[in-house]
Give the backbone structure.
Amino acid sequence: MVYEALDFYDLDSQLTDEEIMVRDMVRGWVDAEVLPKIEKACSEGVFPDEWRVALGEMGVLGAPLEGYGCPGLSYVAYGVICRELERGDSGLRSFASVQGSLAMYPIWDFGSEEQKQKYLPGMASGDLIGCFGLTEPDYGSNPGDMITKAEDKGDHFLLNGAKMWITNGTISDLAVVWAKLDGVIRGFIVETGDEGYSAPEMTGKYSLKASVTSELVFQDCKIPKDRILPGVKGLKGPFSCLNNARFGISWGALGAAQACFSSAKEYSLSRIQFDHPIASYQLVQNKLAWMLREITKGQLLAFELGRKKDNGSWIPEHISLAKMNNVDIALEIAREARDIHGANGILDEYCIMRHMANLESVKTYEGTHDIHNLILGRHITGIQSFTRSL
Amino acid sequence: MVEIAVLLKQVPDTNAKIVVVNGRVDESAIASWVTSPYDEYAFEAALQHTEAAGGSITAITLGPARADKVLKDAAALGVTKLVRIWQDDWQDLDSNQVQSALANAVTAAGADLVYCGKQSADRNQGSTGPGIAEILGAACITEVSESDSAGSYLRPTASGSERVTVSSPAVVTFTKTQNELRRPNVRGIMMAKRAQIEVVGGDVSASQVNFNGHSSPAQKPPGKTYEGSDSVPEVVGLLRDEAKVL
Ligand SMILES: Cc1cc2nc3c(=O)[nH]c(=O)nc-3n(C[C@H](O)[C@H](O)[C@H](O)COP(=O)(O)OP(=O)(O)OC[C@H]3O[C@@H](n4cnc5c(N)ncnc54)[C@H](O)[C@@H]3O)c2cc1C
């Protein structure tokens, strides 16, 4: 079956020639190299190394960053890349998001010149993998209270603590780790092989099975003084990275939704019950029309947000809205698509159940659905309701 | 060092729905255009040839402005010499006209070798490569499935295969090979942004072929349905004698 991307308002016609070429390059690669292999990767719980190599060769890692071997594409192009990758699998998009927005971006924005030169070219080419350590076992939605700490020991820093749920952890060459130095959150670059550092893989996931998720453990982990990111202090550091990653997710989730829609449409046209294709029944058409409606609205949000990222007129709340909405509708679309596929919808022959399970993670990471509601609530009312004295 | 002219034709996507309106294919209804698949094999062979032997490629297409896309795609793979042949008053060029316009561009490019598909995915005439060879007085090798930079080519046939070498000038037309056209990368795509396409017209003699109209394939007759085990012998008989699939 040839993939026909739903684009009801023909929004892709607003892309530049180069953006279309980037889209077609990634889409063609996903068709040829990802879709035939994704189920095996999921059942084995691995992120195939050849995908790392290919993403590096295509040159899409760190898409919107400029200089130091990075692609220097527009944010819209970055969004399109995420959408096409996630049409394949959210785990694949997660790899690219973490590498580009969570590991390369903080080095690019807050790193020293030496740090940029040392790490960014290798990360853009896929030779070096990065991860991002913010979440801790006891601090998820409120990372500000993290307990991982760094101490200045004169000629080195000493890190102690643990991070959890870290994408790419075990397979990464370097980790951008957020820890408190004298009570202030700072970013540190920890390299695999640093004394006192380990990154054991977490197992047993039903979701994002083709993505590596790990713990990061720091036990008197000694790192040189030049590994601190000099350019940022406080939660602003990790949050600026999250803004970029969340932007990518708002596009990516649409890719998963489009894949589910496309499969549901095909299936409903070919599945005969009560002598007619199920697509000819009003209840099924209502579901398809609802999917089309939500995908189209999500696309309009994503495109407009992309333009705002490119012209600098965005605020973080714009990103919260798009991340929250587009993941939410993608998950609902996956569920409706599962229903339209009947029993077949639970098989690995179709992409539906995999996307649905993946999107459960996507709904939680990078700010849970409700945390984004709270961000918008604060924006509307001026009153924060994340916490209160009980 | 070798100079290769690669001929790339833009055709409707092989999955595109073709609609005929008033006896002519409605181009505006074609959602996506692509480079003709056999031309892509020729292009990949040319890329590998110049990588191994040194030299350069000129990508040539004949078509209206939309055909710039195939040249931009070629630019994203590193080709810098890009030529589109077109004149706005051209319509329904016949094979002779196409061949002579392309042959002129090949000569202007100073190419030793011409690589192209054995036929285009839309017209399927298969006349372009041999016709250009005739005009240029060049050797012609058709339906090549394997090539190398030493100028050796493999032609598969139903009863075996034939390996030939050729001295330039030569026109080589490609069938499917083992080597799919490589994917571009972002760096190449950004280079393509700056690519300059040279648009040339040309004198072509009057067309000898009059275009009378396109038509869609005839509707398939409805299938026959057989029910029950009694009909098995009849169905087996039809499959054997009529459909000749048993
Ligand atoms: C597959 C996967 C990969 C991940 N990758 C990374 C990574 O690479 N790096 C990283 O640092 N982290 C990563 N995470 C962690 C992720 O960011 C956290 O899971 C997320 O921030 C939520 O934290 P939590 O799981 O501790 O949930 P909690 O914060 O415990 O939330 C549980 C529930 O409580 C709700 N809740 C919390 N606070 C409030 C409140 N104030 N008001 C109302 N409701 C509230 C939440 O919305 C949620 O429904 C990953 C997670 C997953 C699942």
User: Anything to note?
Assistant: The pocket of flavin-adenine dinucleotide is lined by residues A 98, 132-135, 140-141, 165-167, 208, 213, 361, 364-365, 368, 370-371, 374, 386 (CB under 6 Å).
